[in-house]
Amino acid sequence: MATTVLFSGAFPAMYSTFVKYEFQHTYDAILAAPVDTEELVTGEALWIAARTGVYGCVPMLVAMVFGLDPSWGMLLVPAIAALAGYGWACFGIFIAAKSKAIESFSYWQSGLLTPMFLVAGTFFPLTGLPTWAQVAGNFNPLFHCVQLVRHAAFGFHGWADFGHLAFLTGFALVSWRLAIRFMERKLIL
Q1: pLDDT digits (tens, 9 = 90+) for 75-86
Q2: CB 166: neighbour CB atoms within 10 A?
């Protein structure tokens, strides 16, 4: 589920944002109205986050069909997915604003997003990795999303989950501000 959030949050934000400001000039038209860049970025990211919240539930529903026992904590999965999706959407908008050409997205995908995907505790626990990778994994927003979803399905772990939630919230806020700052620069030029 958590990897679905990464891919359905970051990739649509990267590609659709780039296409909308570089080729379609949709953002130019929106900014001609009494809307500023902050509202534009926020609206775009919220729309992607809402979709991601829904998409994030599909793997969980499929897992239930194959025998995963439902728990009350799973009702929080759409909110977790939407929060993480908002962070990834803002991060994708930031990447789009930093990129000069759509072809450069492959560098971000191969150099940053794929390693984050692999070192998130999704397929194997971080404790089996070298110490440096464990430390790096704890700075990975996807790791915190994986942990929250796992705990929602199999039982929460108290304060640790508040830490994961705080990290995801911080990631979303920092990514949001970076997206706004760099989109302002991109749309002014």
Answers
A1: 999 999 999 999
A2: 11
For 90, residues 6+ apart whose C-beta sits below 8 A from its C-beta are 13, 41, 45, 172, 175, 176, 178, 179
At residue 121, the pLDDT reads 82
Helix ranges, 72-158 (H): 77-98, 105-108, 114-118, 131-138, 141-154
Instruction: Give the position of tokens 């897992």.
Output: 63
Among residues 174, 175, 168, 169, the alpha carbon closest in space to that of 138 is found at: 168
- How many CB atoms lie under 10 A from the CB of residue 1? 25
Please check whether residue 97 is in contact with residue 81, taking contact to mean a CB–CB distance below 8 angstroms: no
Rounded to whole angstroms, the Cα distance separating 144 from 84 reads 9
Alpha-carbon dihedral angle through residues 130, 171, 5, 151, given to the nearest 10 degrees: 70
Cα 19 versus chain centre, distance: 19
Q: What angle do CA 110, 116, 118 make, to 5 degrees?
A: 90
- Per-residue pLDDT tens over the stretch 89-103: 999 999 999 999 999
pLDDT at residue number 183: 94
Residues 6+ apart with CB under 8 A from 75: none
Read out DSSP for 162-185? HHHHHHHHHHHHHHHHHHHHHHHH
